[in-house]
């Protein structure tokens, strides 16, 4: 293990750099004022032109709070309206914000236009850690869908559902995984996004409203003669929409370009006849051309390649206009036939706009004209008290784990605790750096990740104990302990990494968000528990403390349990649990699904406290009152902004479902409001509207989730075949399915419902449940190579006894965290923690009585099996992991 002092110094610098980078990524914790952030980028914030732009932007926000709801939108419009004279004073141009930004920032950020500047301001003004709707509320856009010819008639709902998935993909491309998108009546869709600042919302609106309708049209033959007439008309103050001499079947479209420090608007006369649409685009991405200008590269499928080749081949010499959502981006001259299956869109794109357009084209166009019927600010769906309880309970559980490690492993426990704290900081920083949304279950999951990260330390320390007991020096014991434990740590974490990568590849929405968190957790755990821990051990060994031995407590010093003897009892218990669980799922039927899966009736209720100083009634309390009446419910406070309520109005949204019939009539809804009035006499509740709200988890989401899980299991099988053998991979997956079914069934037996939280907990279980099994398999593989003359049953029994201390210690650490969160964490995470707790117990059980026993039966005729197949080899066991 010992390395040169220079190498040790390099490792230390690397570790400190990694920690510093990711901890710094967590800041700023809060959002900054948009205009103040903009001023910090400028070479001279007091420049009269810039001051005029900012003042006009603020005035626009005051005059029209709907159109200019966001500072970024107002600033962009103000920069366009304020005019700067050209160098010779012969003309006036819109303000180019890039010209006023500090040159070093322009060069470093590659700013090209006003959109780039506004995107940078938006990014710098945002808080580093994005919080979920449950923790910090968010924004809701109620979209009105006006169908085009394709989506009219009986196919409307099919196209609407496809549009929902298209919107979800667009938001995922911008790293918004924790969104809630659902039908809200026949022609409306509700889109809820986790808390973002006002200018991020402006960017989201553009993304959502973009139909991504790409058209290829030809420039009119009389363009060169008609455009000067049109420009002269505009110069005399004419309205471009009222120009009387526009040729038939043509329209003037504008295109913005930059000339030095000036922004110039050009017009082109484009035919209205569409030669080709963008339906056959299979991929697109943003690139830079040889002139440093952004462009979007399009790739057609086979049908699109043929069609584009025919159009360009028959019109060589003509200008082909590329129009997206009615906006002209470029109109190049066709020099030859283009039959390579690609096309390019060039234009004055900002970096964010180029990516947004590319993502929209990739995800597909929408057969609707979309307008925003209303905007809402959504309050956090869980109260501050629930959030505090969840965090404090998690911190308590983590503290108990750290105290346990310190008492049990002494100096080695101190190393583990330092690694654990670093892991937490790096994990949060990485989530901020990669724009992962932090939700309440996410916090619980992070704390659970920290509890499970101790597993690597336990594996290493038990190996070090083994070497010390064999009389090896401390330095040799530490080196050998890390080396011998690495294979089990590597295999278990890499298996989980593959699972996360496949879930991210095939999943959608919350599944992608979970997968990203899972993958980040794997890397931070490997960094802290393996690399950093070894570095810390080397540091302590270099100190002049003359440490000869690391003292540790010992749990189960010489286990001699005959697990093989009880294999049939184990199989029987597993079969019974699976049968009862599956029966429960079918018996409960639709009642097993929460509103997230079924949707319900949406009631918008005015909320007027009789005492103005009274706080809002916690959402959880309202849901409990309705639950006593036999209704599932979700309560959310929000502030709606629309044409009639420019300053917004505060309302309470209730989504309810009758547990028996699933239907809520108008009379029933009125009765529920009356019940709430009785329960809370200090508040006046009045129903304003009633509509049907669709499920948050639709058929497409469910198909994607099932596909992702199947692919994850196939990937796990392939990897374990490579690292172990086929029988081991099958045994591990059977145990994994066992854990998921049992955890779900027991939770439903206890009265729970499957919700998004439960889905998240089951995904967490899938990600980590196989770890125990792989550690045991790793020991079986080692014993098969080193212990000759034993039957396979004896090998399995020996391996189980050797790893028993590690299995119990790791499970104990995880249970400490889970029990604290279950008892003190409040209602907000109770479902998530309960399923994980049940799954953790089931996983510990299956890693002993299911997966190893399957391998024992699979290979029972190998290794000179004796007549007494069940005879244990526990006497060979040693207290190691």
Residue-averaged pLDDT: 83
Q: Order of strands side by side in the largest beta sheet?
A: 4-5-3-15-17-18-16-19
Number of helices: 29
- Number of strand elements: 19
Percent of residues in helices comes to: 40-55%
Low-confidence regions: 864-881
Strand content: 15-25%
**Overall SS class:** alpha+beta
Q: Write down the overall geometry.
A: globular
Q: How would a crystallographer describe the biggest sheet?
A: 8 strands, antiparallel
Annotation keywords:
881 residues, four-stranded antiparallel β-sheet, disordered C terminus, eight-stranded antiparallel β-sheet, 54% helix, alpha+beta, globular
Can you describe this structure?
The longest helix has 33 residues, at 474-506. The chain starts with a helix and ends in a 23-residue tail after the last helix. 54% of the residues lie in helices and 15% in strands. A hairpin with a 7-residue loop joins β17 and β18. It is of the alpha+beta class and 881 residues long. The chain has an eight-stranded antiparallel sheet with strand order 4-5-3-15-17-18-16-19. A four-stranded antiparallel sheet has the order 9-6-12-13, covered by helices on one side. It has a three-stranded antiparallel sheet with strand order 10-11-14. It contains 29 helices and 19 strands. α13 (384-409) runs antiparallel to α27 (804-824) and α15 (440-469) runs antiparallel to α16 (474-506).
